[in-house]
Amino acid sequence: MLAMKIRLLASLFAFSACLAAAQTPSAVYPIQQGYVDAHGVLIYYTEFGQGQPLLVVHGGPGADHTYFLPWLLPLARTHRLVFIDERGSGQSERLQDPAQYTVENMADDVEAVRVALKLGKIDLLGHSYGGVLAQAYALKYQQNLHHLILNSTFPSTSQMNAVLAREKAQMPADKRKRLDELEKAGLYGKGAPWEHGRYPAEYGTLAWGWGYFPYLYGARPDPSYDPAGNAPTNWILYREMWGSDGEFVIDGNLKSVEYVGRLHTIHVPTLILVGDHDECDPSLSREMHEKIAGSKLVILPNSGHVNFVDQPELWQKAVEGFLAQ
Questions:
Q1: Is the pTM of this model over 0.85?
Q2: DSSP 8-state assignment for residue 17
Q3: Which of 18, 34, 176, 313 has a CA positioned 20 to 30 A from the CA of residue 220?
Q4: CA distances from 312 to 59, 166, 315 (A)
Q5: CA Rg, the chain, in Å?
Q6: End-to-end alpha-carbon separation of the chain, Å?
Q7: What is the pLDDT of residues 179-206, one digit of tens each?
Q8: Residue ranges per structural domain of the chain
Q9: What CATH number does domain 32-156+258-323 carry, 2.40.50.100, 3.40.640.10, 3.40.50.1820, 3.40.920.10?
Q10: CB atoms inside a 10 Å sphere around CB 120
Q11: What is residue 49's three-state secondary structure?
């Protein structure tokens, strides 16, 4: 009889321990990574966390997912975070035909990842160019979305080109003069043979340093920021999509991005985030907010394009509060 009571108590203890474990959020978030074959293009993904899937797409075009980390880590406590490297970027497959690097193809890649990983309906967050990609996805696949987050982005290349021209005009006069000289001489095929496929180092420092830096940070400028580190992971992709005439005009295939007249067709809950002196000027976010019915606009104070670095607590509060609705 005593042995039976001991076994019963042991069973109850084990059941209670299992119940407590089920009710206590995990303190360990294993990383899973791999590749999804998206219509013949291998797309790298990495994921961790728990809860509703939140798929994150990066900027550039031609950057990779790593610049989000460690800043987005707190979201793993409430969401299954899925980061991808877009086709041709980071650890994803590079293509022989640069014409296959388009925002439309990348939207289809996002859908292929969603299907392959069996994510069901997803929350989608896009930053900078990734926000353009997120818009393209929503315009084609919004039935597969719970929430859409557009962070520091633009809905119109022609409008973004006007913003870039204003930002260029604000550069110190001597720096702008030298930048104009380099652009007029042509930016590719210069220097040593190994430099021919990218910007000259001097131009990168002028554009990504003197030109962009004032619009990247506010409250917390990254002391390790290096203009040269802003370069894309794939110059061929970048030149195809952004163009060949420098940082302050988009004249590659991203010229196709003119979504303003279609934004009214997006009906999923949408959060629009932007820094108060963002490289993608807040006026662009205000227009997206006006066009997407029921959207929420958050302009983060004293922050630029990398506002999840500048104002991490305010950024997290805005994103988590929106996704919890």
A1: yes
A2: H
A3: 176
A4: 18, 28, 5
A5: 22
A6: 54
A7: 999 999 999 998 889 999 999 999 999 9
A8: 32-156+258-323, 159-253
A9: 3.40.50.1820
A10: 11
A11: strand
